[in-house]
């Protein structure tokens, strides 16, 4: 995994694509900074002239008067300076916003592309809420930091440099006093920043943990209410928020120390400059106008340094967020070395050959697994929890690759095929039916984006769900809500079967498709599933053994091994593990 020390340099990869807008923004900000630094000097010219004129008038010097033309010229110059400052400020913000928002769009696009390439194992190890936080709050933190901080940093640095040049021009002695305070201010800020950075990193991680916790608890809110876990959940949330409060306080307090420290340094410089400058004015070595300009320049140097320190918290949060974003972007893509192509649709012949697999090193789950499945066969997989049923499906779908051995489909080692092309040959109906926010028609067409309306209706009829759809308000155009809770679980299951039918896959995977519905809907779903499985190789995971009695092969798994294999009748006749499992479900009927 790549680990760059400076993630902001990596961010330049996105900004440089819009360097035209970026450099124009910087140029306009330079213009604004120059106009800002000229302000005390121009005002000083007017003040010096007015002071001299008033002194001449007070002394009754012949012809003494206010030099109005000169003052008017200075005021016009001051107005032109102000106009240039406003144009530079507005223009720089406009072009910077354009560059930042387009760069952040590209960053989000890369995250979206990356998420489709990351192995499934990555998502098994990370909370969904934490991942969501990286896509939303972390990206937004970076966007805000760029938007708020970049031009302010440019402006602060330019203002410091230009103001220092002006004070050197006005008076070297006073300038040395101001310049001596700059490194003191810088190193003080750096020391405090170094101390506070770990707290900002911990704060970002804790925020991700809180996002994950909230997402999980909102998703399972009904279950929390059912088991009376509200107080326990609230207590866990309090612990997380207490940790977030603690690290947030440390981060804010440590970085907040900078302001009093820097104010003390700048106030000291201000006091010394006022004292020494006043003595030079009295000695006639410095004009009153230049003295007031000098005092303003002290402020123009100290204020940008304070601005930079104020931005430290934003930049630290942005760095922590960028670390989390690039952790995702740096994840290794799924291995997909394509050496063979599917020049024809699969027939559905599947072969597991000496397959070994383990999720965790030194903890084997599947060992020396062998299985031959002919085209069109229905293979049922049963066994206790943790036996490896879902793992077999994960391997078949290449969500994980085998540790050793091979899985062959129509004579192709699936590791040599394109994952995308290979998975197009599959249809899945899962226990947790997934539908997205949109119309029923759009959800069904998800299985085949080129399907016509007539094909959608035919698939719905075959899945025994057409009549139900037509009873809904809007029929096929009815909008599903975000949780698809405006239809029942069984109806969602029928819709997913219709979606799979529309995809016309060669191999089917049915994972506990009837485990959460009542008996009437189970019969309806079984009928739809039977239609779906016609002429297709099917792998069915089921706890309800009533759904697999017609299977060509039933595999009984335990600890990743096939302990029994056969059809329903032969396994019952063997009176082994399958027989005990069957009788435990149908004992009452048997009596």
TrEMBL record:
> What positions does the domain ABC transporter occupy?
350-584
Q: Which UniProt keywords apply?
A: ATP-binding, Cell membrane, Membrane, Nucleotide-binding, Transmembrane, Transmembrane helix, Transport
Choose one Gene Ontology CC annotation of this protein and give it. plasma membrane
Which InterPro entries does the entry link to? AAA+_ATPase (IPR003593), ABC1_TM_dom (IPR011527), ABC1_TM_sf (IPR036640), ABC_transporter-like_ATP-bd (IPR003439), ABC_transporter-like_CS (IPR017871), P-loop_NTPase (IPR027417), Type_1_exporter (IPR039421)
SMART domains in the cross-refs: AAA
Its annotated compartments are: Cell membrane
Asked whether the keyword Manganese is assigned, the reply is no
User: Which coarse location class describes where this protein primarily resides?
Assistant: membrane
Q: Which CDD domains match?
A: ABC_6TM_Tm288_like, ABCC_Glucan_exporter_like
Q: Report the GO molecular function annotations.
A: ABC-type oligopeptide transporter activity; ATP binding; ATP hydrolysis activity
First and last residue of the signal peptide: none
* One Pfam family of this chain: ABC_tran
Instruction: Look up and give the membrane topology term.
Output: Multi-pass membrane protein
- Give me the segments passing through the membrane: 21-43, 63-80, 174-193
Q: Where does the ABC transmembrane type-1 domain lie?
A: 23-317
The record ties this protein, via PROSITE patterns, to: ABC_TM1F (PS50929), ABC_TRANSPORTER_1 (PS00211), ABC_TRANSPORTER_2 (PS50893)
Instruction: Name it.
Output: ATP-binding cassette, subfamily B, multidrug efflux pump
